[in-house]
Specification:
Layout (H helix, E strand, L loop, with lengths): L3 E8 L8 E3 L2 E3 L7 E4 L5 E4 L16 E6 L4 E6 L3 E6 L4 E7 L5 E6 L5 E6 L3 E6 L8 E4 L5 E6 L5 E6 L3 E6 L5 E6 L5 E6 L5 E6 L4 E5 L4 E5 L7 E6 L5 E6 L1 E2 L2 E2 L2 E5 L6 E5 L6 E6 L9 E6 L4 E5 L13 E7 L9
Antiparallel strand pairs: 1-31, 2-3, 4-5, 6-7, 7-8, 8-9, 10-11, 11-12, 12-13, 14-15, 15-16, 16-17, 18-19, 19-20, 20-21, 22-23, 23-26, 24-25, 26-27, 28-29, 29-30
């Protein structure tokens, strides 16, 4: 687990430590002193000056596009340099470098409790790798006509679902590398995929502002959530599979929200988290042990990571119910780095 620590002592839930996580370098994004500023909606926030963490030699020679956790010690990253890197974040050492893609890496998905992982790329390919195997791909999956923008592994690791800007989802047999199902929806430009734990369902976000729930048994749409007003950039499912988060693009505070949905029978909107000023790039459910209440974290193009009270949206508790704790943001065995 990667501890990126910020103290939230007697601060409202929407107040958080800003930082930027760069592969090979962990440092504070802030360059100014702590001060308060007024947002257009009238909410007062604190910008908290933080100390820089230890810096390591960069693992990539160009922009890092994606990072995921392989286990508690290692993370896997992909970048514009076309390489996939297994990296020991505790020591700052590159464990192994994998080459095979011809263009930028767009997504990484790690197999739970395994040394294997998948990478997707702008070269329209998906490749399977083994940490202890050859630096060449163990398996290749070719079938999309455009950049691959979604990647999700089934809970039993036997199937892989991929999505693309070509409006299609493909379901693969991991063992054989063969495509077993194909689905296409007009204008469904896939932005992210997430497999629901212990279920045959796959959650998908799209540039058509829609969140879809797919049944992998036949790869049919099982449910469409109410259409949002902005492009949906990312989705994440809670560990128990009961809830999910979707993230919206936007600018100047228009859009720029994360939304909590019920994945059970009602499948309704439960809460909305507004406070970012640019596109929300990702969100994650933080482990319950880290806080006195269920919390989520979101990251945005406005260079902020925000911690929210999952049930209230944060702003409703300010002033009366305050966070009195130290909160850690972890690199967990999951799809996102915070």
């Amino acid at each position: 687990m990667l501890p990126l620590r910020c103290h939230l002592n007697q601060a409202p839930p929407q107040v958080l430590c800003r930082f930027c996580a760069v592969m090979g370098k962990l440092q504070s994004k802030l360059k100014h002193s702590t001060y308060k500023y007024s947002r257009p909606d009238g909410i007062i926030e604190d910008r908290i000056h933080t100390k820089a963490f230890q810096e390591y030699t960069p693992a990539h020679v160009d922009t890092v596009s994606v990072v995921a956790a392989l286990n508690s010690d290692l993370c896997v990253s992909g970048g514009k340099d076309k390489t996939v890197v297994a990296y020991d974040w505790k020591t700052g050492n590159v464990v192994k470098r994998f080459r095979g893609h011809e263009r930028e890496i767009t997504k990484i998905a790690c197999v739970h409790k395994s040394n294997q992982f998948f990478s997707a790329s702008r070269d329209r390919m998906v490749m399977m790798w083994d940490l202890h195997g050859s630096p060449q791909p163990k398996q290749q999956f070719s079938g999309h006509a455009m950049v691959v923008t979604g990647l999700a592994v089934s809970p039993d690791s036997s199937q892989l679902c991929t999505g693309s800007r070509d409006n299609t989802l493909l379901l693969w047999d991991v063992g054989t590398g063969q495509c077993v199902e194909r689905a296409s929806v007009s204008r469904n430009l896939v932005t992210h995929l997430c497999w629901v734990p212990r279920e045959p369902y796959i959650l998908q976000t799209s540039e058509d502002k829609t969140i879809r729930l797919w049944d992998s048994r036949g790869l049919q749409v099982a449910h469409i959530f109410p259409t949002k007003q902005h492009i949906q950039t990312y989705c994440e499912v809670s560990e128990d599979g009961h809830k999910c988060i979707s993230c919206s693009n936007g600018f100047g505070g228009e859009g720029c929200e994360a939304t909590l949905w019920d994945l059970r029978q009602t499948r309704t909107r439960m809460c909305e988290y507004k406070g970012h000023f640019q596109t929300v790039a990702s969100g994650v459910f933080l482990p319950r042990a880290l806080a006195l209440m269920p919390v989520i974290a979101t990251s945005s193009h406005d260079c902020k990571v925000k911690i929210w009270n999952q049930d209230t949206g944060g702003s409703k508790t300010r002033g009366s119910q305050q966070l009195k704790m130290s909160i850690f943001v972890f690199l967990c065995p999951g799809p996102a780095l915070f």
